[in-house]
């Protein structure tokens, strides 16, 4: 599957360029840039040259824009899939893997970072004081992944806009900050076209299968509300996220709510110490789910973690899941 993904996305890399020189003029390189990030205006006094990223999707946003030469390193657990056969392999080969855990102040300072690109629960966290505010006191600016922006409903709920809009907002902002606006616009246009092609073939109305995203958890499942990437991956593929009414991104729910909503399909997020096959076996044997349509009909589909967080792999995930949902719709 990863080889097919790499082949599909390599065309995009060739089209948009990889590791090319930035488009910004010499005079503009030192000019301040003001962006809207998580609803706030943030001014960056110069173009960052030593960016440190946290996690795979965030790292690949930089690599998809050909910005590996602007990176000082990344932090990423080694449970996020094979990185040796992806369109951005050359970028990964050029950038230092700083940590197989989350970023810390220590490895950010050791890397002499001049920008930290992370997200709430994708590196930024109150525990341990690794926050944009704390980094700012050290003189290190931050950019927050838009999928992870905290909203006004609670102190911890995340998400301020539809997930694909968040992806496009970050690509647009990064394009402006690093002077690669044309490359960012080309990526966005390509993504929108590929997604529109899937949408045109998708089931409609009552033929749309209902879908539950299963990330992890046995006592309580960890899943996606309407502000995490699976919401629109499911929707654009031709399905309905049964947790759409949950005003959060990634969050925990109860098994009773899954049973009550009786999804036609369960979408498994593949990462971590528990394999996708083990997750599937658990779901098929978990007593509360015995009468759920997806379990009775063994309709369980798997996507990789990086497919299901904000990343440049989202369009490919939509295409693959869309093809699967079309087969489900024909059998319901």
TrEMBL record:
PROSITE patterns the UniProt entry points to: FE_B12_PBP, PROKAR_LIPOPROTEIN
Pfam families, per the entry: Peripla_BP_2
CDD domains with a match to the protein in the record: TroA_a
Homology family: Belongs to the bacterial solute-binding protein 8 family.
Alphabetized InterPro entries for the sequence: ABC_Transporter_SBP (IPR050902), ABC_transptr_periplasmic_BD (IPR002491)
Source species, domain of life: Bacteria
Species this chain originates from: Streptomyces melanogenes
Protein name: ABC transporter substrate-binding protein
Keywords of this entry: Signal
Signal peptide location: 1-20
Domain annotation Fe/B12 periplasmic-binding: ranges: 50-332
């Amino acid at each position: 599957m990863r080889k097919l993904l790499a082949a599909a996305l390599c065309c995009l890399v060739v089209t948009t360029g990889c590791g090319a020189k930035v488009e910004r003029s010499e005079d503009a390189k030192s000019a301040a840039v003001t962006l809207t990030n998580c609803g706030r205006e943030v001014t960056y006094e110069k173009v960052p040259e030593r960016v440190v990223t946290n996690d795979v999707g965030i790292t690949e946003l930089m690599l998809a824009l050909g910005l590996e030469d602007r990176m000082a390193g990344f932090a990423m657990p080694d449970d996020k899939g094979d990185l040796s056969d992806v369109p951005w392999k050359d970028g990964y080969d050029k950038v230092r893997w700083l940590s197989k855990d989350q970023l810390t102040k220590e490895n950010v300072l050791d890397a002499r970072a001049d920008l930290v690109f992370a997200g709430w629960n994708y590196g930024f966290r109150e525990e341990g004081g690794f926050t944009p505010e704390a980094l700012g006191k050290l003189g290190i600016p931050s950019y927050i992944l838009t999928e992870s922006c905290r909203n006004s409903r609670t102190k911890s709920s995340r998400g301020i806009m539809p997930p694909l809009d968040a992806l496009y907002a970050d690509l647009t902002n990064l394009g402006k900050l690093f002077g690669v606006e044309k490359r960012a616009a080309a990526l966005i246009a390509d993504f929108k076209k590929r997604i529109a092609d899937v949408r045109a073939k998708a089931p409609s109305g009552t033929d749309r299968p209902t879908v539950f995203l299963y990330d992890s958890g046995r006592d309580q499942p960890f899943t996606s509300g309407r502000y995490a990437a699976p919401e629109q991956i499911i929707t654009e593929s031709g399905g309905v996220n049964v947790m759409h009414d949950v005003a959060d991104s990634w969050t925990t729910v109860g098994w009773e709510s899954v049973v009550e909503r009786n999804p036609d399909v369960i979408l498994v997020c593949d990462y971590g110490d528990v394999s996708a096959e083990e997750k599937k076996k658990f779901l098929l044997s978990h007593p509360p789910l015995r009468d759920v349509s997806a379990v009775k009909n063994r309709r369980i589909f798997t996507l990789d973690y990086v497919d299901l967080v904000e990343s440049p792999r989202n369009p490919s995930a939509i295409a693959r899941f869309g093809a699967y949902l079309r087969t489900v719709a024909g059998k319901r």
